[in-house]
Design a protein that fits this description.
Strand content: under 5%
Number of helices: 5
Oligomer: single chain
Distance between the termini: 22 Å
Largest sheet: none
Helix content: 40-55%
Shape: globular
Structural class: mainly alpha
């Protein structure tokens, strides 16, 4: 699954922007495979939050996998569709500064 996602145009685009230090202010990932959506979101989050040291990267990646990294929120909840309440939470969260990183996702 991950190897297929890493071959997508979206992954290559984000990887190139990170490499060149040109993050966009927002990204929208449209993914039609609901069964694998969370795995896709986590893979892109890991790319977004790559760290310079392996120890720091492992810690962040483990937190992303556990869905407990404070600067990365995944929506919608498992087996649900995004709701108005989710959109409100996202909007509110966007006004807050990152806690553990220099950016939020």
């Amino acid at each position: 699954m991950q190897s297929l996602l890493k071959q997508t145009q979206a992954y290559a685009l984000l990887q190139n922007e990170i490499k060149n230090g040109r993050y966009g202010h927002a990204y929208l990932l449209k993914y039609d495979d609901a069964r694998n959506l969370r795995a896709a979101l986590k893979l892109f989050a890991k790319l977004f939050f790559q760290k310079s040291t392996p120890a720091a990267e492992k810690r962040v990646f483990d937190l992303i996998d556990a869905e407990s990294f404070s600067d990365c929120l995944l929506y919608p909840e498992p087996n649900k569709k995004i709701s108005v309440e989710d959109a409100e939470k996202i909007r509110e969260e966007c006004t807050l500064n990152p806690v553990e990183s220099e950016k939020k996702l």
